[in-house]
Every structure is written in C-alpha cells, then in structure tokens.
Amino acid sequence: MWLAAAAPSLARRLLFLGPPPPPLLLLLSRSSRRRRRLHSLGLAAMPEKRPFERLPADVSPINYSLCLKPDLLDFTFEGKLEAAAQVRQATNQIVMNCADIDIITASYAPEGDEEIHATGFNYQNEDEKVTLSFPSTLQTGTGTLKIDFVGELNDKMKGFYRSKYTTPSGEVRYAAVTQFEATDARRAFPCWDEPAIKATFDISLVVPKDRVALSNMNVIDRKPYPDDENLVEVKFARTPVMSTYLVAFVVGEYDFVETRSKDGVCVRVYTPVGKAEQGKFALEVAAKTLPFYKDYFNVPYPLPKIDLIAIADFAAGAMENWGLVTYRETALLIDPKNSCSSSRQWVALVVGHELAHQWFGNLVTMEWWTHLWLNEGFASWIEYLCVDHCFPEYDIWTQFVSADYTRAQELDALDNSHPIEVSVGHPSEVDEIFDAISYSKGASVIRMLHDYIGDKDFKKGMNMYLTKFQQKNAATEDLWESLENASGKPIAAVMNTWTKQMGFPLIYVEAEQVEDDRLLRLSQKKFCASGSYVGEDCPQWMVPITISTSEDPNQAKLKILMDKPEMNVVLKNVKPDQWVKLNLGTVGFYRTQYSSAMLESLLPGIRDLSLPPVDRLGLQNDLFSLLHKQADMQEEKNRIERVLGATPLPDLIQKVLTFALSVSYSENCV
Ligand code: BES
Ligand code: ZN
C-alpha cells in the first residue's frame, strides 16, 4: 500500500547552466558507449538564446509526395515534392523549413483551379526557413504545393548525407543515408519540420539498379527510370501520419537476414556486404522485442515491416526512424565468433530502445522538443524492461543501477546540473539537452515511477496514453494524466518534483525500537556533492520510499510516499535483532544516510549476502558519495568510521574501498 498525501508547496530552482554541446560521437570504450548522453556537465556559459518563432499555422501539409534522385558519384541530389496542403487562412506566402537546399521552381495549385507560380524564394538561412511568395492570394482550402529542388549529399552526417564504405574487393564507395532528428529533414527537402506538424508520406527513390533502396515503408513498385537505363524508380507504400524527423531513406549496397516476428511483422537486419551473419543476433532480439512491446502496450506495431540497418558513418548510436531504424555498426552487428557478452547486451539494449520508440515517440510524438527528455528517458528505461524480459539471464537491471542510475546521481549532485525538463526554443538548443540528465536521470525517475505505480496500472496507463494520442502529439503532462487515471495516485504532483527541479534528496533515517515495532524518523535534504545544501528554501521532493527488513530482504514491508521534509513511520512487528533498510532494489532516486546504529545492523546482511546485490550496490554508492563530501561531512565520516572500526583518515577511504569492493565482488552477481 502506498500512503499518499497532498503535494507540498515546493521551492523550485530553475537556474540552468547548460552543458556544452555534445562533441562528435566517437566510440571510445565500453563505459563511453552511451557517450552522447554521458558527456559531463561542464561549466559552459549559458548559450545566448536566439529569438525563435515556430512556423505559422496558416498552411500545413496533409501528404508529402516526395521523389529523390541521389547521385552517388557527384554527391548531389535532385528532388521533386508534391505536397497536398491545407490553407487554413488566406495568405500570399508559404513559410517552410529549408536548409542548404536550392529551390528551382515552386507553385501552388488550389484544388480544381489554376496553378499559381511562386515569384520569390526568400531564404532565411539563420532560421533555416524559406518564404515562398505568390503573386495572388492562396484562398482557404486544399491544394497542391509543387517544389523542384537540388541539394548536396553532404559529409556532415546529418540531413541526406554520404557514407563511405569499402567493398569486399577493397573499392571505396558511398551510400546515401539520412539522419533527421532533431531538425535536419529540412536539409533533404523543404518541409514543415516540427514534430507536431504530422502528415503522410509517399516516398520514391531513383537509384542505380544494382543498389538497395530503403525507406520507412515497404516497396510497392519498382520500374525502370525512363531517362537512364542504369536507374530504377522505387516507390514505397504510404506511411501513417508522422513527424518529419522520423522519415528516412538509404541507398547503398547491403546484405540482409530476415524473419517474421510472432505478430506477423517482416523484420530484416541489413549489414555491410558479406557480413549478414553478424546481423543474426540483432534479428533475434528484434523478433523477440516487437511482440514484447505489442503485449506491453496492448497496441500492435502499425507497419508491415521493420528494417534495422548498420550504417558505416553514423553520428548517433542509433535512430528510431519509423520502420527503418539506423544504427552505427557497433550497436547492431555481432560477430558470432569474436564477441563478448557485454557487446550482445549492448546490442540488445540499443535494439530494445529504438523499437520502444516505434510506439513511444513515433506513434505518439512529443508536441515539442521540450518533451524530448520523456521520449528518451522512457525509451532508456523500457529498453531494460524489454531486455530483462527477453534475456533474463543477463541480470540487466544490475547494470542499469551501475551505469545509468549511478552516473545520473553523480552528475545531478553537482551544482551545475539542470532540471530534466528544460524548455527548448530554437532548434540549436535541442542538441544541448541530449545528455545524461535527460537519458539516465529520465530513465531512473521513470523506473521509480513504474515501481510506485505498480506494473499492472502502469501498463494500463501506457495503453490509455498510446491509444488516446496515437498519430497525434502529447506533452509530458498528458502521460502523467493517463497514469494518474490508471492508478488513482498523484502522479503529476510527484513527478513535477523530479523533473522540474534539478538534484535529488538525501534521506536521513534513524530508528528506535518501541516494544514490538520499529519507529523510523525520516528527513530529506537536497544532496550536494560539494557539501551540505546551504540556503533557505531547500528544495523538497515527493519521494516514493520502500522499506525492507531482514525478515524478507527481497520484499518491501512498507511503501510510503514521503511528501514532507520530515516524517515518522512505524514498522509493525520488527524484532530488535532485525535490520531495516530503505530503497529496495535501489529504485528510488535518492541517497540514504543511516544512523550509525542502523548502518551497523546492516553489516551482517552484507556479509552473509542476504541483502540483494543491487541493494548492496546502492548502499556502497551512498557510502562512497557521503565519504567524498568535503569538510563539513566530518560527522558522516565519523559514523562510517565507527561502523568500520576506528580507522584514522585517510586510511579510512582505502578501507571503505576495500570493504565496498569485497561486498560487490564477493559473488558474480554484482
Ligand atoms: N533518438 C535518439 C537518437 C538521436 C539523439 C538523434 C539525438 C539525434 C539527436 C535515439 O533514440 C537514441 O537515443 N540513440 C542513442 C542510443 C540509444 C541506444 C540510447 C544514441 O544515439 O546515443
Ligand atoms: Zn532514443
């Protein structure tokens, strides 16, 4: 039973010193695999906010009919767009996003009326927009906007770009691939490049006939290109309504392995030529993952196929384009003869992450980039749920704690951290928020929320959310509302304390035996790596807290919602010799500081390993972090010192280290 109470009024600190923009992605080591999200929070100056306006709503797209003809030798492409559009308010101009593209001609034909040729293309390069001017007014109603344009297959790994590969015979060649998130679809074709402006897409590619051409949907036609016998025109089925950042196309040379998932989806993994074997593991993961999500969300995967493709030059780790998920090679390929289990676990997590987005992100899309944390935080949590379901032998949640949770706490304890939710205006701000806070803290607080709600109601709420907003857009509050309706718990009030203010609490706890019961006195204070929180108005959190005892170390004896700075809790029927521990499974995003007596009583549970491995890991992290705090933490140091046996500083740190390592490595599980 969760004990809830009304939300306290909270002091919110919204000062945000943004992290530096992520450096170019290079895979360095295992621990830096999630580099994109793990760059440290630097003391960068607040970037100057550029004035920013969203696209006007007077004209919007209904369907894009888009034909692209890349030249893989000259690194250029030609494009033809015929967009069915709706003029909502009479106007004589159309404003769209457009970057590094030259428009040759543009016209608008109102339905059943004469074509009106645009007389001016005014590029606002800084804003990545173009204004098409027409000599007469476009009246309200539907019509067709036609634009012919040319662009460069760039070498910037964004938009429509070239990716270099070497054939098995050693020849250097280029593929043409896309990476549109967050705001680079506008580099491939003029479009309304905002996540809330959804439309359907009919995509065709004109490509050399010996190349593979892929897009979001299945191929519905392939015919010779009239002007050149070496080319073919490949036409893909119409997509569901979707955001521009999820559109994708690939033209290159690839092998593939294929299967059909239990729920009837055709799954292919595309690999470099000659490496199809290396796609088999990801294929197995994808085929297991799709039915898992279908069951979990109780919403079917809406496309007939999904392709997963390894791209030789790829800036991110992977990208969830609807029906055509792109990966860097190390995030998808497994050499069955020469791979270690951690590589397989990584591939399983990445596949689990991107396939989760097919529902959470693609079917229901964030209304604006401000809600990106939810997209990424959610996928970064559910990837573990999925891998745990498909590969229970991996014990993957322990890795979540040792990687994401621990890292998020380390960063979020710094004075220059930032709230998970930051409002985003100009597209140039989007990249800055893809960091460990949005990914790893985001995932950690959703894990805590899932535990607070319980799996049954959480699933119910997810289904309500995905059904209500499918093919539409939603904001963070919409998810809270669905989960609130499903659970009857104060989700928005709880979650706002975790997403709108930076940092997390340290929970102090001391205990007293009162006859057969144990009385716990809890209090919370912001945890700061630099020392105790100083200042008035210490931020407060609504903290879901679980309490276990030695009677059953794997089961919460009591669950409470700590919604005040201080709280007393009575644990019924706890014998004097039993230990009591907070934060079962290290699920709550807080640190615990026990009185020395409580900490001491936990030692037998650590020594005899009856305390579960993830709980020991959490305890060890908390002890370390308390030790690392500086001067004014003498009291904590003394407490730990007493527990470990009077050891003089600085030997103490060494001793705790030895102690902690003996705890975590004394069995394989941690
Ligand atoms: N949507 C992101 C990829 C992305 C992030 C593209 C930022 C453009 C800008 C994708 O779902 C993602 O999160 N990829 C991760 C890897 C994943 C396994 C966590 C990445 O690229 O680091
Ligand atoms: Zn993601």
Provide a compact summary of the structure:
The protein has 670 residues and is an alpha+beta fold. Helices cover 27% and strands 30% of the residues. InterPro entries: Aminopeptidase_N-like_N, Aminopeptidase_N-like_N_sf, M1_APN-typ, Peptidase_M1, Peptidase_M1_aminopeptidases, Peptidase_M1_dom, Peptidase_M4/M1_CTD_sf.
Write a structural description.
- The active site is at residue 354.
- It is an enzyme of class 3 (hydrolase).
- Its EC number is 3.4.11.14.
- Keywords: Aminopeptidase, Cytoplasm, Hydrolase, Metal-binding, Metalloprotease, Protease, Zinc.
- GO terms for molecular function: alanyl aminopeptidase activity; metalloaminopeptidase activity; peptide binding; zinc ion binding.
- By secondary structure, this protein is α+β, with helices and mostly antiparallel strands.
- The protein has 3 domains: 54-252, Immunoglobulin-like; 360-500, Neutral Protease Domain 2 (Neutral Protease, domain 2, Orthogonal Bundle), CATH 1.10.390; 504-650, Immunoglobulin-like, CATH 2.60.40.1910.
- 27% of the residues lie in helices and 30% in strands.
- The strands form 7 sheets. Strands 6-5-9-3-2-12-15-14 form an 8-stranded mixed beta sheet, with no helix packed on it. Strands 17-18-19-21-20 form a 5-stranded mixed beta sheet, covered by helices on one side.
- Mean pLDDT is 89; it is low at 1-44, 646-650 and 663-670.
- The site of zinc ion has 4 residues, from helix 3 and helix 4.
